[in-house]
Design brief:
By secondary structure, this protein is an all-alpha fold. Helices cover 61% and strands 3% of the residues.
């Protein structure tokens, strides 16, 4: 999975989680969640997930691969940091973080993002392939790598 794919899939999941949290399936209170007090998404989390999901989808289609990768790295670092913060506190900027459910979720998303950031985006791979075909590699360029030249 590359950064663009992460942004698309992650964006869809975030929007879906936000909607489910807003319509009494997994929130906005523990009593409304199908998981009860073990895992629920309060209004602050739901709005954060909705905004972040929309931003991820926009970034997936509007940003070039060269910007998608650093964005996914930041998402990965933030995910891991939120998980570490959740070891010490269950409140973050007005959102209630269940532990261990939210801790595991944020850690998994952070690691997933960092793994995805290691993969080249399709745009970057296409540019690399195009440069190779045009003779842009080592010793190439202007047809100099053709036999007999």
């Amino acid at each position: 999975m590359n950064p663009k794919q992460f942004l698309i899939l992650g964006g869809i999941i975030l929007v879906l989680v936000a909607i489910l949290g807003m319509v009494n399936i997994i929130g906005p209170t523990a009593n409304d969640s199908i998981f009860g007090t073990n895992w629920w998404f309060d209004p602050v989390e739901n709005w954060a997930h909705l905004v972040l999901g929309i931003v991820a989808l926009i970034a997936a289609f509007a940003f070039p691969g060269t910007l998608q990768k650093p964005l996914v790295i930041v998402v990965g670092i933030v995910g891991v940091l939120v998980a570490l913060y959740n070891l010490m506190s269950m409140d973050l900027l007005g959102a209630h973080l269940e532990s261990p459910a939210d801790l595991v979720l944020h850690l998994a998303v952070g690691v997933w993002a960092l793994f995805a950031s290691l993969r080249k985006s399709d745009n970057m791979m296409m540019a690399h392939d195009t440069m190779g075909k045009m003779g842009g590699g080592m010793g190439g360029g202007m047809g100099m790598n053709k036999p007999g030249m």
